[in-house]
Design brief:
The protein has 140 residues and is of the alpha+beta class. Helix content is 22%, strand content 44%.
C-alpha cells in the first residue's frame, strides 16, 4: 500500500529558449532561486488536478515573466526532494513575449548559449534537458 510520502510530487516546467536579440543564436533561460541559491530551468509544483502542460506554462510565466510557446516534449526528470520522490515533466518552449521582474521565488534570470547554460545549471540532472532541447526541432 502506498502512502502519501511514496507518491511522487508532480511538477512541470520548460526549457525556455529564444533567439538572441544580438546575433540570432540560441539562448536558454535559467532562473536563480534565492531560497535554494541555485540555477535551474523554470518549473514548479502542479495544482491539484492541473494538466501538466498548463502547469508548465503557468509556472514559466510566473517565474520568468515570459509567455512560453510550448513545443516538443522533453524527458521527465525524477529525483528525491526533502525525502519525497518528485517527477518534473518538461517541454521545450520558445519565449514569445514578456519581461522579467524579480520576485520572491526568482530573483534573477540569465539568457545563455547552450554550453554556458549547461555549465551554470546547479543540478547535473538538469543538464541533460539542454542536450534534449538541442535534439528537438525548433525554428532556425
Amino acid at each position: 500500500m502506498s502512502t502519501p510520502h511514496d507518491t511522487p510530487v508532480q511538477a512541470a516546467g520548460c526549457v525556455l529558449w529564444r533567439r538572441s536579440p544580438a546575433d540570432g543564436e540560441l539562448e536558454i533561460c535559467l532562473v536563480h532561486r534565492p531560497k535554494y541559491d541555485d540555477w535551474s530551468h523554470p518549473k514548479g509544483k502542479l495544482k491539484r488536478g492541473e494538466d501538466p502542460l498548463a502547469g508548465a506554462v503557468r509556472e514559466v510565466a510566473e517565474e520568468t515573466g515570459y509567455t512560453p510557446l510550448p513545443g516538443a516534449v522533453l524527458p521527465t526528470v525524477r529525483y528525491c526532494a526533502q525525502g519525497r520522490p518528485k517527477e518534473v515533466r518538461y517541454w521545450a518552449a520558445e519565449a514569445v513575449s514578456g519581461d522579467f521582474t524579480p520576485n520572491d521565488e526568482v530573483d534573477r534570470v540569465l539568457w545563455l548559449p547552450p554550453r554556458a547554460a549547461r555549465e551554470r545549471l546547479t543540478q547535473p540532472r538538469d543538464r541533460s534537458l539542454v542536450d534534449a532541447l538541442l535534439h528537438t526541432p525548433h525554428p532556425a
